[in-house]
Design brief:
This protein is an alpha+beta fold. The chain is 42% helix and 29% strand.
Length: 189
């Protein structure tokens, strides 16, 4: 019986957590990046889905798109390192989705998104980011520049996991990747 438990733990435990993921990920939205087939969401924060809009009827803006663009700017071709990865589900046929603490050359990406007003702290895990969120709200930047639906509430009630939106997210992520490659090529020349 002990041998069976040991074999089962060797098979199951590697899928529960990974130590680290490093590279130049594709930005999926303001709190999620993709490394090949693997996705990583930023620990302790929630950003609007790429399809989310904010504002009032006469002044609506694409806050989800702007959040994704801001994360893309923060990364700006720098190597991203995500540690303390925890498995939260599957992505497609081959990939996994993790939550982790991610940095770009030492800069905390969760903190950068909250400080810019493009993410809010997670109620359970985001205590370290509350002061930055309060400062962003007081400055009226990012999401705090007007009315918005909490990204978690939006995902639960107004968000859609339909295939058309997923396809749109992938196309947007590919466009962001192309834009980043063009900028890097221009900077090199």
């Amino acid at each position: 019986m002990k041998r069976l438990l040991a074999i089962a733990s060797m098979i199951l435990l590697p899928s529960l957590a990974m130590a680290e993921m490093t590279g130049n990920p594709m930005v999926m939205n303001g709190d999620t990046m993709q490394f090949g087939e693997q996705q990583v969401s930023l620990y302790g924060v929630h950003a609007p889905m790429i399809t989310q809009t904010c504002g009032e009827t006469d002044d609506v803006w694409s806050c989800g798109w702007d959040a994704a663009l801001h994360l893309e700017d923060v990364i700006a071709g720098r190597e991203v390192v995500c540690t303390d990865l925890t498995d939260i589900g599957e992505v497609g046929d081959e990939g996994m989705h993790y939550v982790g603490r991610c940095t770009a050359e030492g800069d905390d990406l969760s903190a950068a998104m909250v400080e810019a007003g493009f993410a809010i702290p997670d109620e359970e895990m985001g205590e370290a980011y509350v002061a930055s969120a309060i400062a962003a709200e007081e400055e009226g930047i990012g999401l705090w520049s007007g009315p918005f639906v909490d990204p978690v509430t939006y995902a639960q009630n107004g968000g859609c996991s339909c295939s058309a939106r997923k396809k749109s997210m992938m196309e947007n992520a590919e466009l962001l990747e192309e834009m980043r490659a063009e900028e890097e090529a221009t900077e090199t020349n």
